[in-house]
Amino acid sequence: MNTLKQGDAVPNFTAKDEQGNIISLSGYKGKKLVVFFYPKANTPGCTVEACNLRDNYDVLKEKGYELLGVSADSAKKQSNFKNKFNFPFPLLADEDKTVINAFGVWGLKKFMGREYDGIHRKTFIIDENGIVERVIDKVKTKDHAAQILE
Q1: Which residues are known catalytic residues?
Q2: What is the domain extent for residue 71?
Q3: How many domains are contained in the chain?
Q4: Is residue 115 part of a domain?
């Protein structure tokens, strides 16, 4: 797993969101962007994390941040997740793992004694020029917005 680090330039990516809209990194040039990766839509930890960001969305926007959620779920699953919890930000349906691999968040995981490949829950804060400003490796799902605003 070769994860992007602070100071790295984010490779330009293009992926579809939950509605089939094409989203590219270049579309966020000149803006601060928070890209949060989560393992699976509609699971307890991912729901708590995304709802915390939703509940603090206005504060994050006031501080100049745009948000993008990313998982390998289908557009249909992402759309259901977004509609069910009323998320005001796009969710990328990165089924072919283009964005996931560009950021280097796919790799070996351990859970309840078993090992498997999957998405690591990480958040990247990207500056106006597409450079990684900060990486949050240990995401606190219940208090994620506060971590971003630190």
Answers
A1: 46
A2: 14-149
A3: 1
A4: yes
